[in-house]
Amino acid sequence: MTARGLDRGLVGSGHHPDDGDHGHLLDESAHLSDKPAGTGSLPALAAAATHTGGVTELGDQFSTAGYNVLRTRRPELFAKGGPGSIEILEPDAQTSEDGQQFGVMYADQYVTLLRDRVRFPGGVEGAYIRVIPSSPSPGVVVLPVVSGHILLLHQFRHATRSWHWELPRGFRDDDDASPQDTATRELREETGAEATRLVMLGRMHTNTGMTSECVDLVFAEAGEVGTPAHAEGIRQVRTVATAELEAMLLAGEVTDAFTIAAYTQARLRGLI
């Protein structure tokens, strides 16, 4: 995992009737880690962007062309939901009533920001902003257990400007043939520990109101812990008993959604 940051503020506008008013500044802070995306990213979209004052501004041609490329490459992102769903309309009208464009509003190798022209279930047409990972491959969160204790990282996250107790996680690399490969690699890179047994725990979506991002959850039994990856903002590796982790959850010391989801899945399956 590299030290380059994923989390950034993205500018756009749009009113989501089902989620409340998100305003004009979208803080994209739900990404897995600080490393490049894997197979299927959209470098052509990123290359067409120009940066002004830290904010990416896109011309009409880029916004429309990038949107059409995305529809072709990632059709699952434009699937029809059937009766009662939010319908994605063709972005024929390049500008909405509030003067904002439809289409791809920002893209790089990590994240793509879309402003869809949609029809809501009540019949009203409008705009909906959503954030999608530029790679179609889900990231991985790994719950390591060492000698019966759960391994936690104390890691600094730029998006929250805070230190968090959380599980190892990361993007799936091009060289990773499976989520298990990613889990093994991330565990080794971040903690120095080697996985001896892996169990898939399922998949979770991180924020269904704003992003299509999902991750695979993996349980791992692991051997001896090595040196934490200090260069990645990890200052401590700690093993805790199940009861201690639950006390941390109740006390609000663990707030990371990935960690809570992975722990819940492992607990329900009787793995811990």
What topology emerges from the helices and strands here?
Elements: E1 8-11, E2 15-16, E3 20-21, E4 25-28, H1 43-47, E5 50-52, E6 55-57, H2 60-73, E7 87-88, E8 103-107, E9 111-119, E10 125-133, E11 139-146, E12 149-157, E13 162-166, E14 169-170, H3 179-191, E15 195-205, E16 214-222, E17 234-240, H4 242-250, H5 257-268
Parallel strand pairs: 11-16
Antiparallel strand pairs: 1-4, 2-3, 5-6, 7-9, 8-9, 9-10, 11-12, 11-14, 12-13, 12-17, 15-16
Rg for CA atoms: 20 Å
How much of the residues is beta strand, in percent? 25-35%
Number of strands: 17
Examine the secondary-structure arrangement and name the CATH architecture of the largest domain.
Answer: Alpha-Beta Complex
CATH superfamily of the largest domain: Nucleoside Triphosphate Pyrophosphohydrolase
- CATH topological fold name of the largest domain: Nucleoside Triphosphate Pyrophosphohydrolase
Structural class: alpha+beta
Largest sheet, strands/sense/barrel: 7 strands, mixed
* Helical content class: 10-25%
Shape: elongated
Indicate the mean pLDDT: 80
**What is the terminal separation in angstroms?**
28 Å
Q: What count of structural domains?
A: 2
The CATH first-level class of the largest domain comes to Alpha Beta
- The run of helices and strands is EEEEHEEHEEEEEEEEHEEEHH
Please report the number of helical segments. 5
Low-confidence stretches: 1-62
